[in-house]
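Obj.: predict assembly geometry.
Materials: sequence records (below).
Method: joint structure prediction, all chains together.
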Amino acid sequence: MALLELADLTRRFGGLVAVDSVTMQVEPGEVRAVIGPNGAGKSTLFHLVTGVLKPTAGEVRFAGERLTGLPSHRICQRGVSRTFQITALFPEMTARENTQLAAQARHPQRWRPLGGGPVFGTAARYGDAALERLGLMPIADRPAGLLSHGDQRLLEVAMALAQRPRLLLLDEPTQGLSVEETAQAVATLAGLLSDGDLTVLLVEHDMEVVFRLAHKITVLHRGAVIADGPPEMVRADVGVQAAYLGGFA
Amino acid sequence: MGGVGTLHRGTRPCPPAFDPLRGPIPQAEGEESQHPIALMDFLGFLITQCLNALSQAALLFFLGVGLTLIFGIMRIVNFAHGAFFMLGAYVGYTAVHLTGSFWAALVFAPVAVGLVGAAFELGILRRLYRRDGSAFLMVTFGLTLILGEAIRLVWGVAALEVPSPQSLSGIVFILDEPFPVYRLFLAGAGVVVALAIWQFLERTRLGLLIRATSQNAEMVHALGTDVRLVRSAVFGIGCGLAGIGGVFAAPLVTASLGMAPNAVIDTFVIVIIGGMGSFPGSLIGALLVAFVQVFGTYYFPDLAMAFMYLIMLAVLVVRPGGLLGKEA
Amino acid sequence: MPGWRALLLIAVLLAAAPFGLPLYAMTLLTEALILGLFAMSLDLMVGYTRLYSFGHAAAYGLGAYAAGNLLLHTGLPLVFAVLLAALFSGVVAIGVAWVCTLATGVSFSMLTLAFAQLLYAIAFKWTAVTGASDGLAGIPRSPGPFGITIFGSKTGFYYLVLALLIAAYLFCRALVNSPFGAVLRGIRENEPKTQALGFNTRRYKIAVVAIAYALGGLAGALYAPFAGFTNTELLFWLFSGQVLIMVIVGGAGTLVGPILGAAFFLLVQQYLSSYTDSWALFFGAIFIGFVLFAPQGIWGLARRALQPRSGNAV
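Observations (raw structure tokens):
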């Protein structure tokens, strides 16, 4: 059974159709990239899956259960974690504290007003493990606001990972990175994903990154799916080429 | 000396027996509000209450347009706006007593208040443009406190009566309903000022600069205008508008220390309804709030204060996040 | 965070105060502790969660009037009345917080102010409960359970206030260091991200406001028997402003800072008011000065002066 199922998912803003009847399935363990020209609806799709926006029509199903209409924090508790296109961290907390808070969010006693040793202990373990997997332990005690941009992007991924999600949504993880930083990030992510225990939905602009990391690619254009399949197939697809070369920027 | 209650100094603030911005509503003849049987009676009632609401709207508009102007240019919510309104009322009081002329006060007070505002922008606000929004909130709040205490010092704690000018104190009869001339004047003044501001924004150079700066400050700067001057001017004008509102309001509600917080709450609600930074919006907001207040207070007189709260609630439910929920 | 030894020393000094200080100084000190409690309660909102309240006097007033009524009209012992009044304040706050957290930012602050104004207006009208502009007078320090009357004396009452302040401080300390406190810090630094991580931030905000009101109400409830009277000044907007100043000038987000701020405020008021009537004005100016030039407050300045240069931010 597919882990994530989108069925005719649609979102309209007045007259504009941002996401148009998108149907797709993501299998457990799969790394699925969603690509498309600017304005194709990729971020909106993420917002729909994570509950930030409500769909105008259609359904989101996660491990067989309906996600549509749930508030975003509930969806997160079901095991869907995401990163953001524009870096969102806690700048005055250390990297370690960032991942620890992220991990705490999934602890059943995350709200404890007194004591909390066990909560912090577990959260620290998962937080540190995530930092480890992303190679961020050397800067664990530095304030997040003072990290390099590349490390910040990776820290965001670490935070999502610290939540031990069943589905990980990465929104343009290499956004704003230099060529070297991108290469580093991709190597780290490739290592991370090669463990095979994560299901990932990835939005990216950088085609190199996509072809390096993704098992399957879904192409959006003007909110609708125009191609869906393994990288080689998508690469050769005429319609995709037209969209990128002939479509609006 | 030290002692119990030193903090509160045992002073008696003036009771908000009637809300500073609402003022007394002209009572119809007779004790209870008898259901007007004749159509003419009802029409008379309706018209006078509408005029009442219009005069109220005028006051609210003076406040709202100033706040929205300041926000449009500087992207800050001037928490001290209510305090400037209050200052206008008190300065107006003194001006009337010194010169014996209400009209002189009407000219002098807003100018004085505007200058205070501009000075504040120059001295304090300028330093904060790089900081985050909460600094503005704190600082304008601090100014409110300073102005509040300054007014308490200079004018004392008791509410001050400001007489309306002789020519305007009287009653007219509209369809047999009595209505204060002053309120008619106020409604008219509101229309005049609204038109004047509109023309100012549309036709004058400064108005053009203001509109341009609210849309793209950097561009205006690149084109050679000192945006900082525009900002100071706008802040001064906005505060001056609040001040003139205070002078207009004074004969109706008396000048008192409780004016500031109520005024700023009212103003904030108006501007949220109409949209932060929107001149026509402040007009609409003022009208809406005034009508709801006037008719609401007529039918439920004891709930006057609660009404403001309820309006705020309603607004925030429809547009949650208030300011931040500004959608296209 | 101040070392345990320093705090213990201060606690001991405060406990010894009645033996060294003259009576009028003790009265001042008691008031300072009450205000300190009030300011600390606001710090939970302002310093730890970035929820700026312009109407915290509402908490104080709720507590004061509740305690006043309980002590005047029931035979409830002082301690119980005070605690009950604090609880009352906290419960009312849940409703208030539910409304105010419908909004964020400036709108939130406006709503807190509006509520305080509403309470102020009600206090003037509801003569039966509040005594209108005259307020309540002759509030007794009712004898405690088992007939103990030590709290009736100045010294006894002082120790009650001190004990409650210390207890409240320890509670707040534990709270901000708990998982709940960690979420508050997240909300302070980046609320959308905290939500995205899966926290229902609105609930946490409602909770912290309720706790802040309960503690603020405790301060007000202590003031009623301390002064022997309550009046509408306790709900006046200038008072809300003054406590906010205490927090910022003292040092927001430190718990200790606001207590210092309250003491500083009272001291300066005592000192200045013998020279000039416009001391409150100076305070507003001091406040703006701190916001501009020393946003970390007195406590922040003191910490930086005392700590050697180190790499990490605290």
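Conclusions so far: Chain C has one domain: 4-313.
To do: check interface contacts against the pulldown list.
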